[in-house]
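Quick one, probably user error.
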């Protein structure tokens, strides 16, 4: 069973895109992708909403997600979200 989590980050004045750019430049994106159980971690930019970024995050199990959420890098990600003043909308899907 795989779990896909879609997270829409929304900000102002391009802050969501800047967040995604800093996540990539800082190496955090590659670090998440290297975690055990991660099957995908990609950002997308909706054409009709310049203030939103969509993250599609895919994991092998809930246990892998739980370990990710307890990791030190989650503190760094949360700090970046705060830095850029982002709101989040989360959707979760499972493959049976």
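Nope, works fine. Designed sequence:
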């Amino acid at each position: 069973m795989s779990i896909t989590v879609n997270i829409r980050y929304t900000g102002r004045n391009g802050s969501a895109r800047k967040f995604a750019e800093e996540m990539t430049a800082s190496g955090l994106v590659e670090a998440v992708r290297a975690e055990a159980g991660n099957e995908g971690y990609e950002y997308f930019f909706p054409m009709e909403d310049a203030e939103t970024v969509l993250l599609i995050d895919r994991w092998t199990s809930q246990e892998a997600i739980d370990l990710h959420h307890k990791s030190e890098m989650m503190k760094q990600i949360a700090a970046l979200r705060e830095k850029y003043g982002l709101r989040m909308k989360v959707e979760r899907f499972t493959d049976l």
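The longest strand covers residues 3-10.
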